[in-house]
Structures
1.
Amino acid sequence: MPAKIVAGNWKMNGLHGSLNELIAISIAAKNLNCTTVICPPATLVWAAAQTQDIISVGGQDCHDKAIGAYTGEISAGMLADSGAKYVIVGHSERRSEYGETNSLVKRKATIAQASDLTPIICVGETLDERKAGRAIEIVLRDLTASVPGVSDFIVAYEPIWAIGTGLIPSIHDITEIHDALRNLLTDRFNLAGEKISLLYGGSVKSSNATEIFACINVNGALVGGASLTARDFIPIMHSLSNS
Ligand code: PEP
């Protein structure tokens, strides 16, 4: 069975005071039947990893090179050195605002693995693509071109139109995409493909988490807004643990 994982993406939110939320989340995570990951801004990765050892810490992005003259960038090795165990790559905000392509995402995922980080590879369709009936085609195309050669990664299906909007696809549509992702991964990686965790992301909240986690190939969630406070995030963690 794939591991059950709930990952919080804090994006460009969080100062040192926010570590109180992380500590509350880690206390709640202690006896749960799932892995909890928080991806704070890079400025908090080290401190977050130092505060506790129950949940894991992740980066939100990394460069595709190990070292060099890339002002302002952070390498996968630096994240690992700061205590991160995971890194998000190919988030739709990176793809749309910074022009990240599938081949760049693949290189980032590959260097993350080489740096002992587990990449969380994001894919998802736009609303126009969904309306045109192309969601499965787009998601499978992007995942095929974004995954590294080794199966040690996590996939997050995040429909772009569901991120931060309060909208989510129907349970039927989530199931359909996740089943297609699972088929692609087992075709490509055989038995190892059955063990890759598939996360759903996009407006996950305590009110919809239980029905989303009931989908057979949904193994967890990537959560943005509702991961910023322990009050909102802990009920989602409980839903996954009980699923
Ligand atoms: C995200 O940005 O990855 C995300 C899922 O955000 P939200 O939960 O706020 O929709």
Note: The chain has a mean pLDDT of 97.
2.
Amino acid sequence: MTDLPSGKAVVAGVAGWPVAHSRSPRLHGHWLKRHGIDGLYAPFAIAPDDFERAVRGLAAAGLAGLNVTLPHKEAAFALSGRADETARRLGAVNTLVFGPDGAIEGRNTDAFGFAENLNDSGVTGSGTAVVLGAGGAARAVVLALQSLGYGPIRVSNRTAARADSLAATLGPGVDTVAWAGRAAALAGAALLVNATSLGMAGQPALDLPLDDLPAGAAVTDIVYTPLETPLLAAARSRGCRTVDGLGMLLHQGRPGFHAWFGVDPAVDADLRRAVAGDLLMGG
Ligand code: NAP
């Protein structure tokens, strides 16, 4: 048991541009402390043009690995010598594991994080799912929904071509719906997922009447600032079960922590407070 890192500390971190907003240092810092691990987890602000050189340098310097956030997930996939199946299907990597010889392995744990968050919340249904959005996060969500047994999956995105491309790569069982038809697409749905950035603090609201959504449906939002988005508040007042997006962030960190520090850490109320206490207070 140690409170302060030694000269033998295992070092990992998160690479992003910008990175100052990242909650991953708090997430992994909490786990390191809880498990008394001789380790460090640091933020690395790396500009896109420097990404490959910086990552190879950090791997050569003996880091255990990195989480990768915007805008580097595709670049991280491109430089991974080996990538897991999810990363290959998504063409994106959010977790890098460095071998002792400097080998770089890429993984994508966003789909795992989304699925574990639903499981943790007791949402284990099947049936029709509606996904709004077709960006990187929406692709991970669709993959997770397929693994959980949802289907058909209706995807609606402002830019139709992006939804079509998602359906072409992740189908069959993925149908696209015009953005103008998103409210009507809720009829008969068991689950609604917002995987756009709409509803996030500082972004426009998601304009989505819920009249056609069955009251027995569950609703989840991958936006977690605020924790209760206007969509989740509206769904709750209809009597729908709601799941916020913070758990996805917390669970996606588990596989990386396990690979670097050797412990599969727990996601619990203490962790939620440590990572997002300001949001829990409504801040
Ligand atoms: P992205 O690739 O940039 O995709 C953004 C999505 O939002 C696209 O579908 C985009 O539609 C849509 N969108 C943005 N502005 C819009 C508007 N004004 N009207 C309609 N649609 C709009 O981003 P991403 O990586 O998928 O991330 C999406 C959100 O998920 C972000 O808020 C991110 O913070 C959050 N996220 C959360 C977690 C978590 O752990 N909880 C993990 C990953 C991401 P177009 O294609 O038409 O532009």
Note: Residues 110, 113, 133-138, 157-159, 162, 196-198, 200, 204, 222-224, 245, 248-249, 252 surround NAP (CB under 6 Å).
3.
Amino acid sequence: MLLKLTTLPGDGIGPEVVDQAVRVVEEVARAFGHQLSITRKPIGGAALVASKNPLPDDTLQACLSSSAVLLGAVGGPSFDSFPAHLRPESGLLRLRRELGVFANLRPAVCLPALEDCSPLRPEVARGTNILIVRELLGGIYFGQPRQTEGPAGNRSAVDTMRYSEPEIERIAHVGFELARSRRRKVTSVDKANVLDCSRLWRDVVTRVAQQYPDIKLSHMYVDSAAMALVAHPAEFDVLLTENMFGDILSDQAGGIMGSLGMLASASIGGSVGLYEPVHGSAPDIAGRGVANPLGAILSVAMLLRHSFKLEREAACIESAVSEVLAAGNRTRDLVTPGQPALSTSQMGEKVAEAVAQRARVDRGKVAI
Ligand code: NAD
């Protein structure tokens, strides 16, 4: 298969982790006999510096004409004083909109080798395997009007939360479909005791659920969900929710896993899928070669699964990551005191080697 990708390394540690993710996808292509075509383009602060535009047309066109996009991270302290439309983050928000990616998938999986990294007791974190399905293009982050008005000292501000039935329906279908390949449980999270948007959300999700009689649906208020996520995270399977609640709960679920550097994400549902690690540009460690590349590498696994339906290749990367961690390899964010740490590129190399080895074993099985 031809894997036509655009990479957007971005700012800070973005280029460092994307380099390792590319190294792994190159190994996958070699091992499984795929053809790889990669176009690298600027976004965020890197693009602002080069062209005064956080999402240059050339970058957008490259993304739209590829089969999937892999992004590193955008942002940095030198851009914090820029006006909103010239911030690196505005380039990323526009890219999501232009690609039409309304479904953001964020897995939070507690790997056995990393149980000790969780701030929760190992017996609470153990077995956690949640897929957060977050609506990405609606709700309070996009609703109009949004403005601040009035004289200094007496200003007021308004944001608008708005959802339509079709917007809720399409994300609900994504959640139920994905639950079919998992443990067949969907927890829909809202604030239906207070918000009209949430009452509509609950109503529509309940209606869509009738088309999925094999899936067990339950509803939870967002405050209860926040508590349940730390009290008994292993009970969740698919957690389906709107934009802002999903933004907050997915970081919380990620926190349970111990390091932001481990977390991957996929944004799908539009013409081209967008895949990125959950972390930001980490200016505090950028350029030092110590960032954890596994979130970016696991995002490549999601890319192969969702954009190319290459389940065997995706599973190969995920198994390789588990195996490398089980063998005791750690980047700086995962070590316990006294434990040696691998650099970003050493960790990438370990995973690439494990992918090559697993693929050889797979081929051996096919030959037999
Ligand atoms: P951050 O995720 O960049 O960093 C938070 C902390 O986690 C830091 O201590 C950092 O060193 C650590 N960390 C993050 N990724 C790591 C990795 N792969 N390996 C090891 N440690 C890692 O969040 P922040 O500091 O709040 O934001 C920094 C910049 O990134 C800001 O400009 C922000 O706007 C931007 N940001 C971008 C995205 C994105 O591109 N999607 C997401 C979040 C934040």
Note: The chain has two domains: 1-104+262-368, 119-257.
4.
Amino acid sequence: MTTWTRRHIISLADFVPDEYNTVLQTAASFREVLSRRVKKVPTLQGIVVATLFFEPSTRTRNSFELAAKRLSADTLSFTPGTSALTKGETILDTALTYLAMGTNIMVIRHREAGVPLAIANEMDRLESQVSVLNAGDGQHEHPSQALLDLFTICSLLDPDLPRLELLKDKKIAIVGDILHSRVARSNIWSLTASGAEVHLAGPPTLLPKLFASWGMAHQASPVPPTSPEEENSPLPITHYPLPITQPKLFLHWDIEPALQNADFVMTLRLQKERMTQHLLPSLREYHQRYGITRDRLKLCQSDVKVLHPGPVNRGVEISSDLMDDPQFSLISQQVTSGVAVRMALLYLIGGGKA
Ligand code: CP
């Protein structure tokens, strides 16, 4: 493991393998702490962690708060509906208020891409030592979700030493509403960095053309028409720096080639709240063409596992019975992993020594 130098975690675009492995191995240590009778360590005593969630959340918010408490940090929880935002206070003034109260780590979720970065830049401009953790910003990124997905998969392959290299040449299908998915974007960075083959599948309206014209995607099918939402996407993926190695990223408008011999299938929620156009004929037809079912999993490796970041539209992107089947589903393990991984992130950016 290397010495951790990153103050903020906004995106995985520039994460290097050593950083991924440091997170995985630190999370494995905290998983051990969480298996003890007393699941608490004094590591972040005196540190104040504020969860500033301007958009709803169940998993991310609660697991960050639990992670902070397990590390003995003091926690502050912001709820927009009962805050001074309703009286016209700006987001930046809200962040400055938390800074003035002595907050050390701000965990920020917002429906607009770029808000966590803007606050991190302001904290740096003020020469404060505050760290900002992106807990999901619009359609941009959700780094802690992708890291807990990575930890869940790698822990399955080697529980004692989860590490990035375990995924080399594994086939991972990401299926569904990729256009609106910050989870997909962060996972593409982490999974391609591992050397895995990443196959994206979805209807043309939900699988952005920009992914195909990224200059590094190997097109498996003709480029679909650009959707109006994609044209207006706040952070076009072409703005990202290109990685050093050529990632193995494939696009499919049909689901079958993506699932063929896949080791892992990650299905994504249809984000109806972000759809301003009619991008689908019906949820029933979507399920028929792209829903993950037992029948469809027969195309995959026999020991295939299914992930979903949650929350799930049961019977739409995944059949309800499959979601609850422990033979295939890693969904509850993902939630459990979330606490250990978020403890690792708070510990590392909070100045803990690896
Ligand atoms: N996966 C995820 O971000 O879930 P929440 O919206 O419940 O935090």
Note: The CA atoms of residues 179 and 206 lie 5 Å apart.
